[in-house]
Amino acid sequence: MIIAHELSYHAGKKELLHRLSFEAKAGEMLAILGANGAGKSTLMKLLCREISPSHGHIIFRERNLQQYKLPELAKQRAVLSQQNTISISFIVTELVMMGRYPHFDQFPGERDIEVVRQVMEETGITALAGRDYNTLSGGEQQRVQLARVLAQIYDTPDACLFLDEPTNGLDLLYQQQMMELARRLANKGYCVICILHDINFASRFADKILMLKDGKKVAIGTPLEVINHENIYETFNIQVKLMECEGYDCPLVIPAMIQNNL
Ligand SMILES: Nc1ncnc2c1ncn2[C@@H]1O[C@H](COP(=O)(O)OP(=O)(O)OP(=O)(O)O)[C@@H](O)[C@H]1O
Q: Which residues form the ABC transporter domain (predicted)?
C-alpha cells in the first residue's frame, strides 16, 4: 500500500528526517510514536504529499507518490489534521459534504448524499446534522472532521487514512471511541497511519508501531516486538514500568516518577 524508501527531509540546513524506510499495508494500522519535535508531523506531511522528500521516495499503491495528480490522490487518501478551526459558519452536514468535493462538480449526487448519511451514522454524529459547526464541543468537532475525511475515501475501502493525534482534546470515552473507529476502519481494509502520544493506545490498537527520535527510526514492529524499556527510553528519554494486564496482549506502560525540572 505505502512504502517509504530512505526518506530524508531537510528544512534549510537542518535535517528533520533521516533515511527512513518502512511499509504499511492495506488493512493495517501503523502508529507513529515519538517525543515532541521527533519529526512525526513532518513524516506525515511527506506521506500525504503536502511536502516532498529531499531524498528517497514513497511508493503509494504501487506508483511513485509524486506521479499522482492531486484530484486522483484525493480519492485515495485523506488526512485528519490537528488544526480544524473554521472562521465561517457551516452546518455539520455541509461540512461533511466537503469530503465529497473531489467526487462531484457542481451539485452532490445521490451517492454523495448517501455516503454523507452513512459516515455520519458511523461516527455517531447524525444527531448533530443541523448544528452550526462552531457551536460544537471540541470532541464533537473532531468527530465531524473524521466524518468529512471518511466521506472523502468512502468509495475506496483500501485507501489510506492519515490521523494526526486524533485523540487530542478528547475525553476518555471519545478517545476510546475514536481509536475503536480507527481500528474498525483498518479491519475494513483501510490503511490507517496514526500519530499518537499515548503508547498504550498505540500498543492496544495498532498492528505496527514506528518509533522516531530526532528524525531517525528507533524501531518498527508489532507492539509486542517494540514496546520494551530500551526502545521507550531511547525514544522518550524516560524510564517506565511495564505491567502485565489481563485481557491485554501487550504490557501496559506506566511512566516512572521523575524529578520535575520544569
Ligand atoms: N520548516 C521548518 N523549518 C525548520 N524547522 C522545522 C520546520 N518544520 C519543522 N521543524 C522542526 O523539525 C522538528 C520536527 O517537527 P515535527 O512537527 O515534525 O515534530 P513532531 O514529532 O510532530 O512534534 P510534536 O509532537 O511536538 O507535534 C521540530 O524541531 C520542528 O521545530
A: 2-239
161 within 8 A of 191, measured Cβ to Cβ: yes
Do both 104 and 44 map to the same domain?
Answer: no
pLDDT of residue 149: 94
Q: How far is the CA of 17 from the centre of ligand 1 (A)?
A: 10
Residue of the nearest CA to atom 13 in ligand 1? 37
CA of 39 to the centre of ligand 1 (A): 6
Does residue 113 belong to any structural domain of this protein?
yes
For 32, other C-beta atoms within 10 Å of its C-beta total 29
Distance (Å) from CA 97 to ligand 1 centroid: 32
pLDDT surpasses 90 at 49: yes
In the chain, the number of structural domains is 2
- Domain presence at residue 107: yes
Prediction pTM value: 0.92
**Whose CA is closest to 44, among 22, 28, 26?**
22
